[in-house]
Amino acid sequence: VTIRASLQQEDSSLISRRFMKSEIITVASPKYLKKSGLPKKPTDLTDHQTISYGYLKQPKLWMYTDKNGQPILVNVDSQVTTNSGEMNLALCIAGKGITRIPRFHLNDELTQNKLVELFDDYPQINIDIHLVYPSRKHMSSKVRSFIDFVIAELGD
């Protein structure tokens, strides 16, 4: 069983079961904002250091939605691209740049003022989180129990 978070699942022969959703938010550390200034709108990101997540199809194309529901596409020139949400979060907290991250990666970083949410007046984009597995046929009781547990404990 794999847990996969994405805007939309790719067609495949795998079973995909959505169990929760999460907002994607843009965050920066107070240290970074003090040094580099506060971007007021998503297009201001072109003048800032950014940290991108490399497993996206277009990691340096950040999508937002304006108040009228129209897409805003921002090409960022990321100084760092990682394959780890935890690494993106750590680099952001350390003041190395601005990142976009699913809210589920955060614990108390916002309430403890380690990070500041940017553009919270823009509509949020949500991603779905799925359990992905090869087949319902001949599923072991351990796999069935794991799927049921994840849905019961984490599902929305």
Give a written overview of the molecule.
By secondary structure, the chain is of the alpha+beta class. 19% of the residues lie in helices and 34% in strands. It is built from three helices and nine strands; from the N terminus they run E-E-H-E-E-E-E-H-E-E-E-H. The chain has helices at residues 30-36, 85-93, 141-154; strands at residues 2-6, 15-28, 50-53, 61-65, 71-75, 80-82, 98-102, 116-118, 125-133. Strands 1, 2, 3, 6, 7, 8 and 9 form a seven-stranded mixed beta sheet that branches. A two-stranded antiparallel ribbon has the order 4-5. The radius of gyration is 17 Å and the shape is elongated. The two termini are 19 Å apart.
Any descriptors?
156 residues; two-stranded antiparallel sheet; 9 strands; 34% strand
Could you write a compact summary of the structure shown?
This protein has three helices and nine strands. By secondary structure, it is α+β, with helices and mostly antiparallel strands. Strands 1, 2, 3, 6, 7, 8 and 9 form a seven-stranded mixed β-sheet that branches. A two-stranded antiparallel ribbon has the order 4-5.
